[in-house]
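#structure-requests
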Amino acid sequence: MTPWLLVIAGLLAPLSSAIAEEEAPSPALPALGTTAEQASVVGVSSGGYMATQLTVAWPERFHGLGVLAAGPWGCAQGKLSLALNQCMMTRVGEPSLVALEERRADYQSREQVGDAAALSQLRAFVWHGQQDDVIAPVLGDLLAEQLNQWLASSKQLKVERDDQAGHGWPEAADSVAGEMMDWLYPERSAEKAPAAGELRAFDQSDFDARGLADSGYVYVPEACTAGGCGATLALHGCQMSIETIGDTFARDSGLNAWADAHGEVVLYPQAKSSLANPQGCWDWWGFAESSWQLYPLHDTRSGTQAGALLEMLSRLQESPEVR
């Protein structure tokens, strides 16, 4: 086993074990009055691919993007063969950023993603282990190059490469998570004596989308119960959902300690495994769309999982009094 806290053995191989989801129904995701101007999305592996899909689809809804161990936006282009052979390893060559930009521009012309001006304002953080044998490190380099093409200034992007790290969420979770969040929110000061928050399960059935688990998690610092905090969507990788490791990622990602100190709600949506998605990955190649679609729109505003995740963010941003 490689020396990393939350290791993803692969993206598309059969599951070796499973942890049953909670049988008792969870409460609804609460409205917490989080601020729309302070939303971010971070993810690892398939969650990293999904995080970039969300920010390209709705850049006006996000302040920051953090990606660990994933490649460029749009890489799979709705094809499982490309996901396996060009977006994990590069057996058929590296993805063309020119072709992917043509894809994004075509989507934008049909209003299926956000405009370039909004995309250019993001702050972004990219981390990749140089011993990654699941997602080739060159794919992380291509993501960084792609982001540099989009952003208004190279000063909005921070890239970290760990020469010793394999694939997954790093063992030094507190350190990497804190570095990432500090970069995304440089103006956010820490409280001297933060109070511990609460990790809550919530019912995901309110957000209907193929591939979602029954329950997700949300971490709410004590200071955020009255509203006014930012919100971060944290997307797990394959084999890291509730059915395989329970709440381990939600508890041990390192994000919660930063959230306590800086006033941030952290949402941990959960995917589930299926015949089309045996390792419980987020949909970065199109499996959650209708089977008749030759060109699935999973990486657009029409994507079923992307839409559900945005609805969760919108719920958090509602005033508690509204509900």
